[in-house]
Input
Amino acid sequence: MSEAILLVGGQGTRLRPLTDSTPKPLLPLAGVACTTHQLLKAKAAGVTRVVLATSYLAEVFEAQYGAGEALGLELVYAVEREPLGTGGAIANAGQFLKGDGPILIFNGDVISNHSLEEQYRVHESSGAVATLHLTPVEDARAYGCVPVDDSGRVKAFLEKMDNPVTNLINAGCYIFDRSIIDVIPLNTVISVEREIFPELVKQHVQGYVSDDYWIDLGTPEAFTKASADLITGRAYSPALGILNMEYLANAAEIATSARITGGTFLDKGVTVDEAAHVHQSVILADSWVGSNAHVENSFVGRGVKIGSGIKLVNVAVGDGVEIHEGTTVSEGARLSA
Output
């Protein structure tokens, strides 16, 4: 398994305003772009060549990664001029593949500690045409569920329901035989989850079930949690190694009476004033947190000014926003300049 397709074309509408100028997969987790975490995980599993399936702000990916030399990978870019859905994106990227062997395909908005090597072993030993990473969740009602038989073979792909028949869900990482990719129609909007997988079940789709750490980065709150989990050691990435820290600060200026807790990330040029408390949050470059401010489970963009005494809980703040002293910010607010 030397080639992969990374699906990074989504617009990240649920993360706005954070994604107004930055694609969701390039938002940082513990100071490192999500895409970098994923590329290095694939590399650690033996992948040497990755096709990035891009659409929204496609040019930003190539500007950041180029041909992949800095990561020790060969990177190529398959650009969708119009969004084609997950299946259409895979078909479009498939034109840039070179080999005939199994292809790793993974979503650009997931962080997982599961073993790609073990998923590949299951794929090879089962004789399946596709092998999916499946993860158990506490409440599967928000997801489509994926029941399997005693051998791990997938029986069906079921839409969201009030009483799921299993707590196993599609975790967004697949291994496909190359022949499957080659028959997906080109230039066609198609969903791999709703249209391709149900057809593949008629052949043989295998589930690789793992209860290792997994998170879907669909919301700002999920991004802040994943970043904190990487910093505190609950999650792992080859980009960072094993960490066990209360916070991670990149040349930030922190007052002696300020408290930084819960796996917070502070980017370069961040200033945190006296008696402020920042907990399980991400604060990007050149932002300022005033005295006695409280920032919790929040993602704060670049060049933001948070006035003295301000309280932010589960808030996403876009670049350049100024929150003046005395302002009341509702929990869960989304603030843009």
User: Anything to note?
Assistant: The longest strand covers residues 168-176. The helical segments are 34-44, 58-65, 85-94, 116-126, 178-182, 192-200, 220-232. The radius of gyration is 21 Å. The chain has a mean pLDDT of 93.
